[in-house]
Design a protein that fits this description.
Layout lengths: L15 E3 L2 E3 L12 E4 L2 E8 L4 E10 L2 E5 L6 H12 L7 E5 L5 H4 L2 H8 L3 E3 L1 H12 L7 H10 L3 H9 L17 E2 L5 E4 L2 E8 L6 E6 L4 E5 L21 H15 L5 E4 L8 H23 L10 H5 L8 H17 L3 E6 L2 E6 L1
Parallel strand pairs: 6-7, 7-8, 8-9, 13-14
Antiparallel strand pairs: 1-2, 3-4, 4-5, 5-6, 10-11, 11-12, 12-13, 15-16
Length: 360
């Protein structure tokens, strides 16, 4: 690709506008394991992710004594091979200084432990996210806990699906995540972290995960957004088994308002999936309105009949839900139902261990 240009205009790519967002690099993205310089001190690569996501974007930040990375990819052989190729090639004469991780999901934290142990460098994460990653990495069992199966019945799983879960293992998280070091460096909301010549302000959001940490460079107008602000897809907002009584959608909507208030409209967003873009206020507004529209449709449907969480898939997602995403869909459906219940817009009745939602 052509050399970087500070204006992000004369870089040789044709900017693209779609649904109120501007993509300064159009549809250009680096190949897996290649590094494209967005700025002289800011690089971008991608790593593979199985399924519809296809990839995760990772970021290289010039740092004192070398470079830092933000997010790490899944701990899978193909991803490790791409990392090794970079260490033998483009990064062979540079020193890794530290690892930033936006949140605990495997595509973000997966290689963090391996990289930290390999190069003897610290992992910088929000405390809650780090603890969740550590907890889920070691919680591996032959069968799922009975309380999980009871909860799936509450959500509307039939006996066949519950029995299939019962016979399966528990702890898939650990299969794609390397063992983290015993300690970490905390990324607290409101902290300012100096990396090279840039000051990155830490802004956390909830709903997708409990305390997802974004890195905001106000001076240069850039945010490393992780999954908090994606350009073309909406982040999964689910009831988690670690907090079955939480209201994550309320947290997510509050986070959208928080980010809209703190981020300038012309900021360049570096998302975990998709392409760098501008138009952050437009996107945040769309994310919020999309959920409110779903909530309104769901509330209207509950006035006509009672529904379990699994009965809402067609209304909420508008596409078939296969086994690979059944759990994610259930968690998101529950998040919307929980929001309506807490807001007094729906009521829950449990009959024979199954949760039925109806009009308030």
């Amino acid at each position: 690709p052509p050399a970087y240009d500070m204006s992000l205009v004369d870089h040789g790519f044709e900017a693209k506008e779609l649904k109120g967002l501007t993509y300064p690099l159009g549809d250009h993205a680096p190949e897996y394991g290649d590094i494209y310089q967005l700025a002289p001190d800011l690089g971008w690569t991608r790593m593979p992710v199985p399924g519809n996501l296809n990839h995760i974007n990772l970021w290289f930040l010039d740092d004192e004594g070398g470079y830092a990375i933000a997010d790490t990819g899944l701990f899978l052989p193909s991803v490790v091979d791409y990392w090794k190729a970079m260490f033998a090639g483009a990064l062979s004469d540079r020193q890794l200084t530290r690892i930033f991780v936006t949140h605990f999901h495997p595509d973000h934290v997966g290689c963090a432990g391996w990289l930290a142990n390999k190069f003897k460098v610290p992992v910088w994460m929000n405390r809650t996210e780090w603890l969740l990653a550590r907890l889920m990495s070691v919680d591996v069992r032959e069968h799922p806990p009975e309380e999980i199966l009871t909860r799936r019945k509450l959500y509307g799983y039939d006996e066949e699906r519950i029995d299939k879960m019962r016979k399966g293992g528990w702890g898939n998280f650990a299969r794609a995540v390397s063992r983290l070091p015993t300690g970490h460096h905390r990324l607290d909301d409101g902290a300012i972290v100096r990396v090279g010549s840039r000051d990155w302000h830490i802004v956390t959001g909830g709903g997708h995960t409990p305390e997802h940490a974004c890195m905001v460079d106000y001076q240069n107008g850039v945010i490393i957004a992780g999954d908090q602000i994606l350009p073309r897809i909406t982040s999964n907002v689910s009831i988690m088994d670690s907090e079955p009584d939480a209201d994550p959608l309320a947290e997510w909507l509050a986070s959208i308002a928080k980010f809209r208030a703190t981020l300038p409209e012309d900021m360049l967003v570096l998302p975990a999936h998709g392409f760098p873009f501008k138009g952050v206020h437009v996107r945040l507004d769309k994310l919020a309105s999309g959920h409110h529209e779903q909530l309104d449709r769901l509330e209207a449907a509950l006035r006509t009949k009672e529904m379990r969480a699994v009965d809402t898939f067609g209304l909420l997602f508008g596409r078939p839900i296969d086994d690979s995403i059944y759990g994610l869909a259930t968690g998101e459906a529950m998040a919307h139902l929980r929001y309506l219940e807490r807001a007094g817009r729906a009521k829950l009745e449990i009959r024979d261990g199954v949760g039925w939602y109806g009009a308030a």
